[in-house]
Structure to design on (201 residues):
C-alpha cells in the first residue's frame, strides 16, 4: 500500500511545506522537527537538497519510491521537458483529479473514494487511484446514494478551493472532464522538478 502512515505534520515541518493540506503545526513551528530543529543551521549538500525536492513530490502524491521511479522513467521516454512531463503525469493520476475537482478534501481521501468504488471514468467504475487520465476523459461520482452524499459533503467543504482551468466541473451532475494537460504555471509545483531530474540523472 502506497499510503504514508507516519506523522504528517512532522514531514511537513521537515520540508517546510504543507504536503498533505493545511498544517497548523507548520504555522506554529516553522522549523524542522527534533530537539535541535530550531537551532540547526547545518548547510545541506547539493545531493541532500535534490533528495528533499524528490521526497516532497513523492510524499505529496502518495507514491512509493519504485512507483515514483517508474513515473520518472516514463517522463524521460516522452517528448518534452522531462521535469514538466513528470509533473503532468503525476497531476493526471485519477486520485489527484478527484481531489482537484473537489470530490475529496485530500489526495488520501480521493484514494479511498476510488478504491471503495465511488468513482467511474468514462462510464466505467475504476478502482485504481494510479489510473492515468487523458484529455477528454470524464470523471464522475457513481449514481449511488452513498457515493453522492460523500461527494456533496466534500464539495461543500472544498467550496473555497479553485478548480484548475484545465479541468471542467459540472457540480450538479457530480462529474468533471479533463480538458487538457496542465502547464507548469497552472500546476504550481511545491518542488523544483529540475533538481528531481538531476537527482535521478
Amino acid at each position: 500500500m502506497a499510503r504514508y502512515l507516519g506523522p504528517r505534520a512532522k514531514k511537513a515541518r521537515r520540508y517546510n511545506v504543507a504536503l498533505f493540506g493545511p498544517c497548523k503545526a507548520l504555522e506554529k513551528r516553522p522549523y524542522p522537527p527534533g530537539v535541535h530543529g530550531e537551532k540547526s543551521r547545518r548547510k545541506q549538500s547539493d545531493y541532500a537538497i535534490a533528495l528533499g525536492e524528490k521526497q516532497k513530490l513523492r510524499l505529496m502524491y502518495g507514491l512509493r519510491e519504485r512507483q515514483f521511479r517508474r513515473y520518472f522513467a516514463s517522463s524521460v521516454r516522452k517528448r518534452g521537458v522531462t521535469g514538466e512531463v513528470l509533473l503532468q503525469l503525476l497531476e493526471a493520476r485519477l486520485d489527484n483529479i478527484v481531489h482537484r475537482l473537489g470530490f475529496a478534501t485530500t489526495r488520501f481521501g480521493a484514494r479511498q473514494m476510488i478504491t471503495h468504488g465511488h468513482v467511474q471514468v468514462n462510464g466505467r467504475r475504476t478502482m485504481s487511484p494510479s489510473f492515468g487520465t487523458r484529455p477528454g476523459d470524464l470523471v464522475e461520482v457513481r449514481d449511488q446514494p452513498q457515493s453522492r452524499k460523500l461527494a456533496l459533503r466534500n464539495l461543500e467543504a472544498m467550496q473555497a478551493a479553485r478548480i484548475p482551468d484545465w479541468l471542467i466541473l459540472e457540480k450538479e451532475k457530480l462529474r468533471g472532464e479533463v480538458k487538457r494537460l496542465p502547464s507548469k504555471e497552472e500546476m504550481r509545483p511545491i518542488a523544483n522538478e529540475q533538481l528531481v531530474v538531476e537527482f535521478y540523472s
